[in-house]
Amino acid sequence: MTAIALSAHPTIRTTRLRLTVRGRRVLAAVAALPAAAALSFAIIGGGAAIAGSDDGAPAASFQTVTVSYGESLWSIAEEVAPGADPRDVVYAISRLNALDGAALQVGQTLAIPAEYAADR
Question: What is the architecture of the domain spanning 62-117?
Answer without folding.
Answer: Roll (3.10)
